[in-house]
Write a structure and sequence with these properties.
Structural class: mainly alpha
Number of helices: 9
Distance between the termini: 48 Å
CATH superfamily of the largest domain: Winged helix-like DNA-binding domain superfamily/Winged helix DNA-binding domain
Order of helices and strands: HHHHHHHHH
Helix content: over 70%
Number of strands: 0
């Protein structure tokens, strides 16, 4: 995809110093020299070219944003590949958690409730509708936790808020969902609320 920039580029302490000072030519050289191999490596883990490209772009964006805090002795290529591996594994983990969560919901919804009028698709639609109506901050926390499998601590880092703030937003989201869904008429949805932790 990209031609190699300079195969003889030395990623020594002097190079790191240039990065720390915001030398765009050094950053561009590093990007062009490692982008393809990082994408290939990430794709070998995620089995997704799209995910791999997103991972590498995020890594370089983060590297540039946090360049001032780089350790002068860091092996920059090892650092990039380690970052790619960690992000790729995170994506796989979150996809697996999301799939298990969705499979669990479908299984639970299809369980007999001694009420043949209850439709799994209807319940899924109603829960989804109410989640979408949540206040934006509460909705984001709810989805990051329940759909993407992030812990409260991880969400706090992502959103740059305290863990207590995350807990408060999640509590509000669950309370709002419970109050709204319990008002359902002609739909035995209440047993599902406990299953869903609502």
């Amino acid at each position: 995809m990209f031609a190699q920039y300079n195969t003889e580029m030395k990623y020594d302490s002097a190079f790191i110093q240039k990065l720390k000072k915001g030398n765009k030519k050094s950053f561009e050289g590093l990007f062009l020299n490692t982008y393809e191999s990082l994408c290939d490596y990430s794709a070998s883990i995620t089995n997704s070219k799209e995910d791999a490209e997103g991972i590498v772009q995020d890594i370089f964006a983060s590297l540039w944003t946090n360049r001032h805090s780089l350790d002068i002795s860091v092996n920059i290529k090892a650092y990039l590949f380690k970052s790619a591996k960690n992000r790729a594994l995170d994506i796989i983990q979150h996809k697996e958690i999301r799939k298990k969560y969705q499979d669990h919901l479908t299984s639970m919804y299809q369980t007999s409730l001694n009420n043949e009028s209850v439709s799994a698709s209807h319940i899924i639609r109603r829960v989804t509708e109410e989640v979408e109506k949540l206040p934006e901050k509460c909705k984001v926390v709810y989805l990051l936790h329940r759909r993407d499998g992030l812990t409260y601590s991880e969400i706090a880092v992502v959103l740059e808020i305290s863990k207590k703030a995350v807990e408060a937003r999640m509590t509000k989201a669950l309370k709002t969902l419970r109050e709204r869904l319990q008002k359902e008429k002609n739909l035995n949805i209440i047993p599902y609320l406990a299953i869903l932790g609502i």
